[in-house]
Hints:
Blueprint: E1 2-6, H1 8-14, E2 23-27, H2 31-36, E3 40-41, E4 48-50, E5 57-60, E6 62-66, E7 74-78, H3 84-89, E8 99-101, H4 104-108, E9 118-119, H5 124-130, E10 132-133, H6 145-156, E11 161-162, H7 164-175, H8 184-195, H9 201-210, H10 212-216, H11 218-221, E12 227-228, E13 236-237, H12 238-251, H13 256-264, H14 283-297, H15 302-319, H16 326-335, H17 342-357, H18 368-381, H19 385-394, H20 399-415
Parallel strand pairs: 2-5, 10-11
Antiparallel strand pairs: 1-2, 1-8, 3-4, 4-5, 6-7, 8-9, 12-13
Amino acid sequence: MQIYMVGGAVRDALLGLPVQDHDWVVVGGTPEAMAEQGFLPVGRDFPVFLHPQTHEEYALARTERKTARGYHGFHFHAGPDVTLEQDLARRDLTINSIAIKQDPETASGLFHIDPARLIDPWGGQRDLRRKIFRHVTGAFREDPVRILRVARFAARFADFHVAPETLALMQDMVRQGEVDALVPERVWRELARGLMENKPSRMFEVLRECGALERLLPEVDSLWGIVQPAPHHREVETGVHLMRVLDISAQLGAPVAVRFACLMHDLGKGAAAPALLPRHIGHEQRSVRLAAAVCERWRVPNEVRQLAELVAREHGHIHASGELDAAALLRLLERCDAMRKPERFGDALLACECDARGRLGDEDAPYPQRERLLTVLAAAQSVDTAAIAAWANERGLRGPQVGELIRQARIAAIAGVPAPG
């Protein structure tokens, strides 16, 4: 029984990057032999085991055969007769198909890559040097998730490009309808991971190039070809603006919910809404409906969905909040449920800042609306509602009357916040 480190750990070590996750493959092993050494079986679809001390995953070398369309349509064979080369052949990209035999250093995860010890039957080192994403074999086409993985890797390694033959294979997979069979949970998982990479726009560029974006997120794909109105800026396509917004969100270290809200906020400006052109009047409510449909389709977590719909609905008002009086500012806070969910409101403001700074020439521009609205919220929260309710109760006031007193007190508190500029 021999153990090898494979996949992303070897790739990242060769690139001089921190090694986060260790991917171990066991050649010549059996479930019984693994159990005898104290490994705990955890795999459902194929034999995967947890190391008794490190709790890292060790998988028996395996081959796979396509049996049906989609992500789950595979038959796996794992046994002592499967070679390392066969296991590497089933992997997605050549840069992820490099292995190194386990020794005391690699077992600890603190290892120095010795080129002489690398096992690289598919030219992964060459493609790393050339910064190319290249599929290992034609078996790539058997798993449509690999399209999403390539796009996600493009967002992480933004200076890499997809090999022409791999892009052509991905395009053919899309034409054959493979992406239509993807399960929602896996699509969301890959999209979320790609959004959290350093340059998320690259993920969507690759998905567009292979045609998968039109199938998975037609609402986003339709934003290209639509001009983004920009009275004081050079006009750009809405899709191009959206990609700039996503990259700004990454530069600001925004959480995934904010980045997804940035992706969803302008869907209403898409090609399916020509009546809204040229000023996109009323696009916010359409954006809310389209964002809700996307979230339903890919089973986006509720807290992420709620922020996306909030930003889609209110981003125009937040941008223009410097022109609102105290009563209108309070109504904005109430629509955003900011008093009850101040953290979500803060995330909405961050998404709006990303949108504003995504305009050409405004990458480093300040966004005073964010700081001021947080100050406005703090002023509204400072109102002692219990004291007002007690005072009103002593005078026989109830229900709506108490609510109106609280509202007036909050308006007065907000009015005390200095005007912008």
